[in-house]
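Teaching assistant's notes for section 4

Start the section by putting this record on the projector. Ask students to predict, before seeing the second block, whether Probable branched-chain-amino-acid aminotransferase will look compact or extended. Collect guesses on the board.
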Amino acid sequence: MAVDTTAQSTTWTWVDGDWHEGNPPLIGPRSHAMWLGSTVFDGARWFENVAPDLDLHCQRVNRSAEALLMKPTMTAEAIEALAWEGIKRFDGKTAIYVKPMYWAEHGGYMGVPADPESTRFALCLFETPMIAPSGFSVTVSPFRRPTIECMPTNAKAGCLYPNNARAVLEARSRGFDNCLVRDMLGNIAETGTSNIFMVRDGEVFTPAPNGTFLSGITRSRTIALLRAKGMTVTEKTLTIDDFMAADEIFSTGNHSKVVPVIRIEDRELQAGPVARTARDLYWEWAHA
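Reveal the predicted structure now:
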């Protein structure tokens, strides 16, 4: 039975000089991206008439393409201008995900590496609401984050996400919303979908970037805002025990920005004051 490939929400995509509504067919069975995974993307957000750090997301997608040895074909400034052009095609009632993408059409030596000269670009915008800031539950995943020697962890690459997906699905099969994912040494790296923070005795902690997870743009923005508020934010190696003993836990990520964790394993948590402060600071900065 044929799968319905129509877009699941209002969607506009710019590719090869034109805007297309819906889910245009862009790759085929011979496309390198389809069978060998040469895809990178980034994700910005438009909501409440603002698109925080859109410029930084546009810059990062080009760095991700280079990390997968592809050749960016658009400047970050051109991508940003296109994004604002695309945003005007929506009615403004629902939050928008802004997703610039690169992929390789052809392969190089024996078909395995991407041919950088065949790099293609598309910019896809689609409606998707943010999750409620009421909070979510986490468990510890049995799956691990790879190292830079194993996978291109210095890029926002599509090939990294099946590992995140199986971590999330395994957690949800056990009744949790999401999960904490460890690095190869057993220390906490992130959740299955976002960066992670914890609070103990008024001090904020977050895993130090160690090459196993993407140090997110919203993560960096949140750290800067909390520090400007006079709070101590420490990046360090953190264990499962650290999180189990935390006073608060919250996540940061592009999809829903700042969201508290309200249960870790069988321990209930409250959406605490630091998470609320972080979210309020982010919203205030975004709308300034």
